[in-house]
Amino acid sequence: MNSLVGGAVYSCDLDGWKVSWESQSGYRHWCHQENPAFAKNLLVVMFNPGSLSGDGSNLRRDTTLRILREVCEPAGVNPFVVNLFDYASPSPDELFSNWSERDGRGLVFAALDEARFSAVIMAYGDYENRGERDNEIKERVAMVRSFFSTLKEIVLPRNGSGTPKHPMTWQRQKLKSTISSLLSDGLAHD
Fold first, then answer.
1. Is-above-0.70 flag for pTM?
2. Which H helix or E strand runs over 79?
3. Which residue in 122, 118, 14 sits closest to 76, CA to CA?
């Protein structure tokens, strides 16, 4: 895959998947995990990138990306992750502390070709209800939804506040097989 917003593109093979991502300084613009057996791509909208950046030396430790592989494999789909904000940090609190740096050189959403995706899921957690930047987060969610309004959204389990659960919550609440089933069912009708 080529650069979408002027960063460097990296690739690594991991557990039978090809993992590719675009990084630029302290930002990660996207991450695509491809299993050669799968033809369909799923757009996954999360909150902000974790620790994967640069040369990928910490790829094996990225739990969220591992969880995505585990739920997408039974559904036969490749997850393509974009984030509401592309400032890479393993801690959302660090993002909030560096809010002025939340976006890199350009937003990746407009550079994506919707035709390459079979569906979209939201998995950004409950950050819009923490009392920190709530309105700005809600505005970004609305903007991202408008960019991908023609894609079928597969609705996944929600937090008590109505926001979509994050993959780490899927794991803690033992929802991975439920998520895989929802993805399989949602993708079977396209």
1. yes
2. strand 77-83
3. 118
Select from 82, 79, 100, 68 the least CA-distant residue to 4: 82
Instruction: Judge residue 27's burial from the number of C-beta atoms within 10 Å of its C-beta, 0-12 exposed, 13-18 middle, 19 or more buried.
Output: buried
> Quick count: other Cβ atoms within 10 Å of Cβ 55?
10
Task: Find the DSSP H helices in 50-91.
Answer: 63-75
Could you read off the pLDDT tens digit of each residue along the chain, which spans 190 residues?
889 988 999 999 998 999 999 998 889 999 999 999 999 999 999 999 887 766 677 788 889 999 999 999 999 999 999 999 999 988 888 999 999 999 987 789 999 999 999 999 999 999 988 888 999 999 999 999 999 999 999 999 999 999 999 999 999 999 999 999 999 999 996 5
Which residue intervals of 132-175 are DSSP H helices? 134-147, 167-172
Residue 19: helix, strand or coil by DSSP?
strand
Amino acid sitting at position 32: H
